[in-house]
Amino acid sequence: MNAQPLAQHRLGLIGGTGALTLLPASEQYVVETRWGAPSSALSKVAVGPNDAPEQAWMIARHGDPHRIPPHRVNYRANIQALKDAGVRQLIAINAVGGINADFAVGDLVLVDQLIDYTWGRAHTFSDGPEHPLAHIEFAQPFDGATRTALIRAAQAAGVALHLSGCYGATQGPRLETAAEILRLKRDGCDVVGMTGMPEAALAREAGMDCACLCVVANPAAGLSTEAISMEALHAALGEGMKQVGRLLAHWDGRVEQGGVGQ
Predict the structure, then answer these.
(1) Which CATH number is correct for 11-248, 3.30.420.200, 3.50.50.60, 3.40.50.920, 3.40.50.1580?
(2) What is the tens place of the pLDDT at every residue in 181-216?
(3) Whole-prediction pTM
């Protein structure tokens, strides 16, 4: 591994459970940020068709190997490392539980809203007198050109994609109770995960255009007659990630340049 990135790339990806094998790394670079070390080395990957791929940076959200629980992820370091490497467009790939009855196991959901139920996480770069206060606009957290490009890629790949959904971000690492899922459902959540926040808000603070691509790994707690099995969850993720791979193989980076926010 090298000491630091040698090139700036506009596109970045953060992958969680099941996403590590999606895109093989051609190079890896160990980096440090003012917020500490990110979850993993920065991996240089190629996204898009083989004849015209786009170079991108990717971080393994839970480390490589997978070891960091959701509440211990250094979200600030992950986003800062990608920003320092030139990233302006971010694809966040998340494994989720399905709450909406229309979302089957293995489905892909491009969420457009979120509700944050997490607590105690370092959730902003505006943390101390040396870091200017920033009140980001966040009404539509995933409404930029990256989302549009993912929709276009799914259409080109023939991959089914739900185009709307609300992500409920819970603390973890335990799974939710049935009562908690009923509460999330009443609140309007369609899927539940543990890492969507503060990642999305930090990306907005960093000026990145973030899109959140979710793979439904299991029915959320209490919504199935069967208990949630880790073996079944990982099997479903494997199939869902194949669809993510097909979609990313049709990524076309010719979208609007630049990011959003501060």
Answers:
(1) 3.40.50.1580
(2) 999 999 999 999 999 999 999 999 999 999 999 999
(3) 0.92
